[in-house]
Amino acid sequence: MALVKVIEVIASSEVSFDDAIKNAVKEVTQTIKNVDSVYVKDFKVHVKDDQITSFGAVCKVSFRIDEEKRNQQH
């Protein structure tokens, strides 16, 4: 049986929502392996002087727990 864990991350970009999501995946995969999917829960923008200054994405990242490491913990 596969065990899947879900974490929530907030990522941002000065370019676009798409870039913010890519930044989330890039950062998460530096420390977490076996990422299966990213569910974008919410979007937001920061505004200054009537202009959008950054784009944000709240993401739920799902990843499989390594079966071998799980067995070592028992």
Model description:
28% of the residues lie in helices and 51% in strands. The mean pLDDT is 92. The radius of gyration is 15 Å and the shape is elongated. It has 74 residues and is of the alpha+beta class. It contains two helices and three strands. Strands 1-3-2 form a three-stranded antiparallel beta sheet, with helices on one face. A hairpin with a 2-residue loop joins strand 2 (35-48) and strand 3.
Count the DSSP helices: 2
Q: In sequence order, what are the helices and strands, one letter per element?
A: EHEEH
Low-confidence stretches: none
Question: Given the helix and strand composition, which structural class is it?
Answer: alpha+beta
Strand order of the largest sheet: 1-3-2
Percent of residues in β-strands: over 45%
Biggest sheet: strands, sense, closure?
3 strands, antiparallel
- Quantity of strands, as a count: 3
Helix proportion of residues, in percent? Answer: 25-40%
The average pLDDT is: 92
Measured between the Cα atoms of the first and last residue, the distance is 16 Å
- Over the alpha carbons, how many angstroms does the gyration radius reach? 15 Å
Shape: elongated
Question: What's a concise summary of this model?
Answer:
With 74 residues, the chain is an alpha+beta fold. 28% of the residues lie in helices and 51% in strands.
Chain-wise SSE layout:
Blueprint lengths: L3 E10 L3 H15 L3 E14 L2 E14 L2 H6 L2
Antiparallel strand pairs: 1-3, 2-3
Which descriptors would you attach to this protein?
alpha+beta; elongated; 51% strand; 74 residues; single chain
